[in-house]
Design brief:
It contains 10 helices and 7 strands. By secondary structure, it is α/β, with parallel strands linked by helices. It has one domain: Rossmann fold (3-Layer(aba) Sandwich).
Length: 315
């Protein structure tokens, strides 16, 4: 389904987001039964759950929308702790297999991806220099925007999209980097598109920007010389419209709920749209039958087998 003559297929973008959301969850939790060919059991769950789910859905939304419109973009991820999402996209595009031959576009590759995530001598829980295309780790938040502007210097052919976490933007380094757009106005430099991922929460509390009014946010970025636009990241058509109307100084503020598409609550505690979804929202999935069942339902909600069959057929 193409919209408004924009030349993108909304359904394909949304399928990719679902695919990568599933893989983000699977990397955090699963060591076996990746396709859910049987009901999940305790033995399918990793003995140590380490990862960050809350930012992953927004990363997948941004990456899929950007890739559909700018296939040759350079992507810089500020919240590098959302690495399962970045790695899922690198797997989807085949970029991971260029450097890790076992990350093939089949069941073997899926099992390799999930088993090796956050595992000794495997893939780390955060973006790292070993990740294809990564030039900013994100392990210490704050440097993504400055890195993006630096990568654009003297490279007019480059289009660089940088996703900045709203918790990250509370750092002095990130705020100071907002001034750099004034220094890269020459046509001899590339285009940098900053995107603020406004999901409202950091590791254990609301973010300052998540509690700011839209008027405050727009005035803040206008003061730094940007032309800001606020979008609902869960609306693919709205995202694509914003990307089709980019200016040299556009700054996108992308709103998504923290932990979007994940479990809504656990034992009366809100998960989606709350800081409780930041890391592992079902920390006892291996030992607690209730949480294991919730994980099963969560994974099934993406209808991954349908997506996987299409993915392998295309390859």
């Amino acid at each position: 389904m193409h919209i408004h003559g924009l030349g993108v297929n909304v359904r394909d973008i949304e399928k990719r987001i679902r695919f990568c959301n599933y893989l983000s969850v699977a990397q955090i939790f699963l060591q076996d039964n990746i396709l859910l060919n049987r009901p999940l059991s305790s033995s399918d769950i990793k003995p140590r759950l380490l990862g960050h789910w809350g930012s992953c859905p927004g990363i997948n939304i941004a990456y899929a929308n950007l890739k559909a419109r700018f296939p040759q973009m350079q992507f810089i991820l500020g919240p590098g702790h959302g690495f399962p999402a970045l790695q899922a996209n690198l797997f989807y595009d085949g970029d991971l297999a260029e450097y890790y031959p076992e990350a093939t576009s089949n069941l073997h590759g899926l099992e390799y991806l999930c088993k090796e995530f956050s595992w000794p001598y495997g893939f780390p829980s955060h973006a790292s220099p070993a990740t294809p295309g990564v030039i900013s780790e994100g392990g210490e938040l704050g440097y993504s925007l400055a890195t993006a502007y630096g990568a654009a210097l003297g490279r007019p052919e480059k289009f660089i999209a940088v996703l900045i976490g709203d918790g990250e933007l509370e750092t002095a380094t990130a705020v100071g980097s907002l001034n750099l757009n004034k220094l890269l106005t020459s046509k001899n430099n590339g285009h940098v598109l900053p995107i603020l991922h406004l999901n409202g929460y950091k590791i254990s509390a609301p973010t300052l920007y998540g509690r700011s009014s839209e008027r405050e946010l727009l005035n803040l970025f206008r003061g730094f010389g940007y032309d800001p636009v606020i979008i609902d990241g869960t609306n693919t058509e709205e995202f694509q419209m914003a990307l089709s109307e980019l200016k040299t100084n556009t700054f996108i503020i992308m709103k998504t709920p923290k932990g979007f598409t994940g479990p809504k609550e656990l034992d009366g505690k809100k998960l989606e749209g709350n800081c409780a979804s930041h890391q592992v929202p079902l920390p006892k999935a291996k030992s607690d039958p209730k949480q294991l069942k919730m994980l099963q339902e969560w994974l099934e909600s993406y209808n991954f087998k349908e997506l996987y069959d299409e993915f392998t057929d295309e390859r």
